[in-house]
Design a protein that fits this description.
This protein is an all-alpha fold. 60% of the residues lie in helices and 0% in strands. It is built from five helices and no strands.
Length: 80
């Protein structure tokens, strides 16, 4: 099942990943190593250009010590 996201919804997810990473003072390289993926792959996920698989999403959430539902939540944003 594919979920179509608006650009604004993608932006909400992207900002959450970046905020979590910066709050923990981690680099994209550090997260990628902990998760077992290439930095370019993590960068694409953080920027919303790629969607992680379930196992990768779980590993990223574990790095942040957050439930996967919090890290990768898609918040409905009213149209402006």
């Amino acid at each position: 099942m594919t979920i179509a996201l608006t650009m604004r919804q993608k932006h909400k997810r992207v900002m959450r990943l970046r905020q979590l990473r910066r709050a923990r003072e981690l680099t994209q390289v550090e997260i990628a190593k902990r998760v077992g993926i290439h930095r370019n792959a993590y960068n694409a996920i953080e920027k919303g250009r790629a969607e992680p698989g379930l196992e990768t999403a779980k590993k990223i959430a574990a790095v942040f010590q957050q439930p996967v539902e919090h890290v990768f939540a898609y918040v409905e944003v009213p149209a402006s």
